[in-house]
Amino acid sequence: MEYFALKLLCLCAVLGHSAEAASNGTCRNVPGSPGFPSQAEWDALNATVSGRLVAVVPSAKFCASLPGGACTDEQWESAVFRSTIPGAMNQVNWEQGYDLNPPSLCLRNATTCGQGDVPLYSVEAETVADIQAAVKFSSAHNLRLVIKSSGHDFLGRSTAPSSLLIHTHNLQNIAFTDAFFVGGTDMGAAVILGSGAYTNALYAQGKKEGKIAVGAFAATVCAAGGWVQGAGHSALSPTLGLGADNALEFEIVVANGDLLKVNQNSHPDLFYALRGGGAGSWGVLVSATFKTYPTFNVTSSTLLFGAANATVTASLAFLHAQHIFDWDSVHAGQYFYVEENLDPSTSATTPFVFNVSTIMPRTTVNESKALLAPFLNAALALPGVSLLLQEFNYIVVNDVLFHADDSVGVNEIVGSRLIPAATYRDSPATVGKVYEKLLETGAPAILGILVAGGKVAENANISSAVHPAWRTAKAHVVVVAEWDDSASLAEISQIRHLFQNVQAPILDELIAGSGASIGSYSNEADVLERNFQTTFFGPNYARLTEIKRMYDPEDLFIVGAGVGSERWDEWGLCRL
Ligand SMILES: Cc1cc2nc3c(=O)[nH]c(=O)nc-3n(C[C@H](O)[C@H](O)[C@H](O)COP(=O)(O)OP(=O)(O)OC[C@H]3O[C@@H](n4cnc5c(N)ncnc54)[C@H](O)[C@@H]3O)c2cc1C
Ligand SMILES: *[C@@H]1O[C@H](CO)[C@@H](O)[C@H](O)[C@H]1NC(C)=O
Ligand SMILES: *[C@@H]1O[C@H](CO)[C@@H](O)[C@H](O)[C@H]1NC(C)=O
Ligand SMILES: *[C@@H]1O[C@H](CO)[C@@H](O)[C@H](O)[C@H]1NC(C)=O
Ligand SMILES: *[C@@H]1O[C@H](CO)[C@@H](O)[C@H](O)[C@H]1NC(C)=O
Ligand SMILES: *[C@@H]1O[C@H](CO)[C@@H](O)[C@H](O)[C@H]1NC(C)=O
Ligand SMILES: *[C@@H]1O[C@H](CO)[C@@H](O)[C@H](O)[C@H]1NC(C)=O
Ligand SMILES: *[C@@H]1O[C@H](CO)[C@@H](O)[C@H](O)[C@H]1NC(C)=O
Ligand SMILES: *[C@@H]1O[C@H](CO)[C@@H](O)[C@H](O)[C@H]1NC(C)=O
């Protein structure tokens, strides 16, 4: 692909740091430091967790060790397959130690392989006791601790160099109930999800029960992992609220090793933090309980437009902005993605596609067509726009949300902003201008996610750490950046800094005029976000800092751009 933007940027120096630094009061213990556990101590931990301690390697090294000496492309790109590799991340760039000194990489098919940003050991937890043992061991030995359920994280927060990993993938229990009690109060129908349970399993088992819960678009995101802690959006959010709005209770192992039951009555401060206060900063989730609803049918549709050039694409984005409220009467959720057209049969005439994929709850195909017609007809009247595909399906909501797997295994990062409803209402033309500028920076994809408004706005009075920008937003807009393994470290550094240096200020133009403050969804965002405290957590940061001090006074749970991370270096290895 073309990196159009490279020449616009400085070659920003990357601060080198060695993960092999000797430990002292301000750094965690790493191999070679006097306080690092001995082999006997690791063996003792392994015995405590019934042999479930494994040495971790990067996914490329794991693949090279397989009988055929490689993973197939199908395996490499499968989130389900990658979840069987303790060290694997879905976006493989997070396994690379680009910023280590010297850089430590393990690329697919390469002849050399460094450990990079991949943990040293993992506890493949199956019980609460496994988690407690790993937490206590990390505290006692001053280790860098990380937590992973699926490895989906776009900010690399579920991996770190020289760390011990707690992998909750095996906690896959799913239990539906018609009456979930918090204290003496019946909160109604609910589902208790283990922190390793995949979203697609929730949809499939829910169908058998005649139930649906708010969940992610991706098949293998763990609702009771990072998703809910960030806020958790869904195509059903305009109808049923955010994931965090639907959370009733959590079971969590906190830094002192205690297992806590957390709900509106019990540890209400932690209950506040776990709903929007950021993934990985509070303890190790064992399970989360969410409200469920009787299932219903939806009309799911795709309109795939081709656009002749970037200007036409921007006009389409402007037009879409003018129509974005057309579907509010049915509380639609929608993914409106601008992407480079990779289909060789149409890409010559239409280098960009605008893929508008809509879910309209309790709406027939004819009703749905009627609601989309004004936008569709106006789009087709634009010069340079063509309709490549049109599809409508009336279907049980569980089936439309169900996907068997996610396609991953690339080098990919994102940056994002929550876009106020006021911007779409008052200045849709700005939307078009911003899309054109973003495409000029070389962005291969701009993902619009209409998952706010409706119930998300109505839920503004829920007391949780969800960024208030969610309550006045209409959509979340995500700018994607990608690179191949052939990119040089200098090119990769440019791309990694592109969002903060160039694209965030462009996206901010969509917020500036509205009077709203700048907000971003912390789960689909740039880990290098400069003012992450306010951008990800808004006015909630001070309270979150207090809650963290109470439950995690020694900063055992530190993630990039998470609460308290300003006290630590990029890897969470040394205090600043
Ligand atoms: C293809 C794709 C599609 C997506 N679709 C959606 C979507 O529709 N809606 C949406 O809201 N988001 C979506 N996301 C973003 C998603 O919410 C985040 O990637 C989220 O971090 C995933 O959480 P996870 O636990 O599955 O991932 P992981 O990478 O395992 O973990 C992410 C973070 O959560 C922490 N964490 C994980 N498990 C635990 C645990 N047991 N206890 C405590 N902390 C834990 C980790 O430490 C890390 O900080 C998508 C991401 C991808 C890659
Ligand atoms: C702790 O170790 C780090 C890395 O070696 C070093 O930079 C730092 O100065 C040390 N701090 C103290 C207080 O010794
Ligand atoms: C932990 O113990 C199991 C079973 O005894 C063993 O197979 C595994 O290699 C051990 N892990 C480590 C890291 O030594
Ligand atoms: C690595 O090898 C596999 C076959 O084993 C091949 O399909 C793939 O394209 C190669 N990937 C890279 C990045 O070279
Ligand atoms: C359009 O986007 C949806 C997700 O939003 C995706 O499932 C679908 O495959 C895309 N269709 C095309 C033709 O790109
Ligand atoms: C949907 O609209 C088409 C064409 O307008 C019509 O023929 C059909 O009967 C309608 N279907 C329903 C279920 O109303
Ligand atoms: C983009 O396409 C439109 C419609 O085909 C055309 O009118 C316009 O001149 C093109 N713009 C550029 C910059 O090529
Ligand atoms: C819901 O859609 C399914 C098809 O997925 C259909 O069989 C069923 O009859 C529909 N139910 C209702 C109530 O319309
Ligand atoms: C929020 O407001 C709605 C009415 O708008 C009310 O039904 C609900 O109980 C309120 N919730 C809280 C937590 O105050």
UniProtKB/TrEMBL annotation:
<dbReference type="InterPro" id="IPR036318">
    <property type="entry name" value="FAD-bd_PCMH-like_sf"/>
</dbReference>
<dbReference type="InterPro" id="IPR006093">
    <property type="entry name" value="Oxy_OxRdtase_FAD_BS"/>
</dbReference>
<keyword id="KW-0560">Oxidoreductase</keyword>
<feature type="domain" description="FAD-binding PCMH-type">
    <location>
        <begin position="115"/>
        <end position="295"/>
    </location>
</feature>
<dbReference type="Pfam" id="PF08031">
    <property type="entry name" value="BBE"/>
</dbReference>
<dbReference type="InterPro" id="IPR016169">
    <property type="entry name" value="FAD-bd_PCMH_sub2"/>
</dbReference>
<dbReference type="InterPro" id="IPR012951">
    <property type="entry name" value="BBE"/>
</dbReference>
<keyword id="KW-0732">Signal</keyword>
<protein>
    <submittedName>
        <fullName>FAD-binding domain-containing protein</fullName>
    </submittedName>
</protein>
<dbReference type="InterPro" id="IPR006094">
    <property type="entry name" value="Oxid_FAD_bind_N"/>
</dbReference>
<dbReference type="InterPro" id="IPR016166">
    <property type="entry name" value="FAD-bd_PCMH"/>
</dbReference>
<dbReference type="GO" id="GO:0016491">
    <property type="term" value="F:oxidoreductase activity"/>
</dbReference>
<dbReference type="Pfam" id="PF01565">
    <property type="entry name" value="FAD_binding_4"/>
</dbReference>
<dbReference type="InterPro" id="IPR050432">
    <property type="entry name" value="FAD-linked_Oxidoreductases_BP"/>
</dbReference>
<comment type="similarity">
    <text>Belongs to the oxygen-dependent FAD-linked oxidoreductase family.</text>
</comment>
<feature type="signal peptide">
    <location>
        <begin position="1"/>
        <end position="21"/>
    </location>
</feature>
<dbReference type="GO" id="GO:0071949">
    <property type="term" value="F:FAD binding"/>
</dbReference>
